[in-house]
Amino acid sequence: MKPMIDYRLYLITDRSIMSTDKLEIAVEQAILGGCTVVQLREKNSTSLEFYDTAIKIKEITSKYKIPLIINDRIDIAMAVDAEGVHIGQRDMPPSVARDLIGDDKILGVSASTFEEAVIAEKYGADYIGVGAMFSTNTKSDARLTSICELKEIRKHVSIPIVVIGGINKNTIPKFQGIDINGIAVVSAIISQPDIKMASKELKGMFMIGK
Fold first, then answer.
1. pTM for the structure as a whole
2. The domain spanning residue 39 has which CATH number?
């Protein structure tokens, strides 16, 4: 049975900028601060390293009953029984990913345009990561999505929308009045000296904006 997900504060990991010695510590602190979803992104790991890390992170997310989403790697997601997988526009088509993971897993798809968002929903996405909304050092080659385009996507897409790209204390207020379901955050949480407090503050800001 497919899990119900609270997308409000969606953490995307990046061990290259984290403030802690271990990723497990960073993830647990983020969850304690209010993080509602964790996406494990390991761009520079071998398959074995990714798998070993996913096993450790899954233990933590399961402990707190927080869904774990694996970035790109469907094989890793299935191997550790993660709640879902997130794919980008350069990965396999959503319809193929859905066939591989089945109906009981969550499928997230990145979209930076209206057309990409509509296609993602049509072919099986459970939620869409829209952006990059603002420039960000964690993904310097990302195409920027305007607030106007985000509003257009929201009008025509019924599945949850999580905004990503440069999301922090300064940019969260720009989404006030737009019916988004969550904010995806990297450096504004994982690189902060107090990860737990950073998570708590960002979640609070998003909730006020709702």
1. 0.96
2. 3.20.20.70
Whether 75 is covered by a domain: the verdict is yes
Rg (CA), the chain: 16
Residue 18 inside a domain? The answer is yes
- Check residue 209 and give its pLDDT: 66
* Structural domain range at position 204: 9-209
Indicate the pairing of strand 9-12 with strand 161-164. unpaired
Q: Would you state the structure tokens that stand for residue 27, as one six-digit string?
A: 């993830």
The DSSP code sequence of 22-38 is SHHHHHHHHHHTT--EE
Q: Is 22 a catalytic residue?
A: no
2 inside domain: no
User: Considering 8, 73, 105, 139, which one is annotated as catalytic?
Assistant: 139
| pLDDT bracket for residue 210 (50, 70, 90) | low
Residue 139 known to be catalytic? yes
Residue 130 falls inside a structural domain: yes
Looking at per-residue confidence, does 70 or 44 come out higher? Answer: 70
Is 41 part of the annotated catalytic residue set? yes
d(CA 98, CA 125): 8
Q: Are 101 and 76 in contact (CB under 8 A)?
A: no
